[in-house]
Write a structure and sequence with these properties.
With about 425 residues, this protein is of the alpha+beta class. It has 4 domains: about 90 residues, Rossmann fold (3-Layer(aba) Sandwich), CATH 3.40.50.20; about 55 residues, 2-Layer Sandwich (Dna Ligase, domain 1); about 120 residues, D-amino Acid Aminotransferase, Chain A, domain 1 (2-Layer Sandwich), CATH 3.30.470.20; about 100 residues, Glycinamide Ribonucleotide Synthetase, Chain A, domain 4. The strands form 7 sheets. A 5-stranded parallel sheet has the order 3-2-1-4-5, with helices on both faces. A 5-stranded antiparallel sheet has the order 12-15-18-23-20. Strands 6-9-7-8 form a 4-stranded antiparallel sheet, sandwiched between helices. Helix 3 crosses helix 5 and helix 6 packs across helix 7. The longest helix has 19 residues. Bound molecules: adenosine monophosphate (AMP) and glycine. The site of adenosine monophosphate (AMP) has 15 residues, from strand 7, strand 8 and strand 17.
Length: about 425
Amino acid sequence: MRILVLGSGAREHAIITALLREDVDHEIIAAPGNAGIAAEVQVIALDPANPAVVTEFALENDIELVIIGPEAPLVAGVADRLRQRGIAVFGPGKAAAQLEGSKTFAKRIMDVAGVPTGRATRAGTLDEAIAAIDSFGSPYVVKADGLAAGKGVLVTTDRDAAVAHAGYWIGQGSVLVEEFLDGQEVSLFLLSDGHNVLPLEPAQDYKRLSDNDEGPNTGGMGAYSPLPWLPAGFVDEVIDTIALPTVRTLAAEQTPFIGLLYCGLILTAAGTRVIEFNARFGDPETQVVLPRLITPLSGLLFAAASGELGGMPRPQFSDDVAVTVVLASEGYPETPITGRIITGIDTALAIHGVTVAHAATALSGGDLVATGGRVLSVVATGSDFGEARSRAYLALEAIDLEGGQYRTDIAQRVAE
Ligand code: AMP
Ligand code: GLY
């Protein structure tokens, strides 16, 4: 198949790695990609969030499937334009992508669908926000309403910080003040063709910068899959009470969701609750879900894009476990220092079970340099979490990036 993958992060690198692992040879083009992706497939410098440019490129190059990695092209309507021109695309249109792009929209859909989520109040003025902050009480949860690149959510016991966060984001639009939900977090990805869903295996993401879940929220500092502590029947429960009602509600509203429904869940004492939906594969969870996938990814994504998931068997996964640890630049998440040289990746790749998904890398005068906050996702598989963890951390020790930071406790709780 001729496949165009839009995006430039470790998630896209992991998607491409899974496509390249299939028995069939695909012709893969990535736009814009990064240095790691460019070492494996053709990359093309085009703006992945420009609907006209992407569609013209896809038509001229006889692309049979477009896989949209990040949220920006979805919210910009790239999938709509491709679909109008008859190109199979894995990723929802602009309207359905509001499930991620607007927390107010997501809350309304959950309300209509009867999906369990935290109570929330939308505030358009600081006075409204303060009233909601005091009414929900500590710990305070304040979220920017629109896309905020992982920076929009503050969970804190510091009321002044909650009020300041609300004030900042109200300046950009509006905020949601939410009930604090206490429990383990789970990311579950479901493929949707607009009507039917197929689950991938759950993963857990580590959102905070530092060990023991300290420090600021980030885009994600590591992940592992599967989750051995999940109750039996968990995935079926999420399908029945969350994913299918959501997909059916969106279809009934003439905004079918075709793509990856990312359910961000918290297992509270009162039951499973949605904290957020995303309209795309999660990063870094993709880096631990896809290496374990046995069923060919291209077939699954093409079937979803073509409305043909109904009656298909659930994707198969290997018994191996997977762990990923993100290497971030000094200063991440506030002000990452970029341009520093990365060495040692070849040594890391020589370790059995290790792959390295590039996130923000480029070649500069023959050197591999960091170009952003999250630089690499080191991925290791193993027969158990102890093995996968030791491989991942051995690989990280081999890689050198001045000032680079990573958590040392990813998957520790399941390895003990
Ligand atoms: P979000 O971007 O909505 O996923 O939020 C980022 C992170 O903030 C989540 O992964 C949780 O760790 C935390 N969070 C968000 N909403 C809540 C909530 N209502 N209660 C507790 N933690 C939350
Ligand atoms: N890992 C969280 C996200 O992709 O949004």
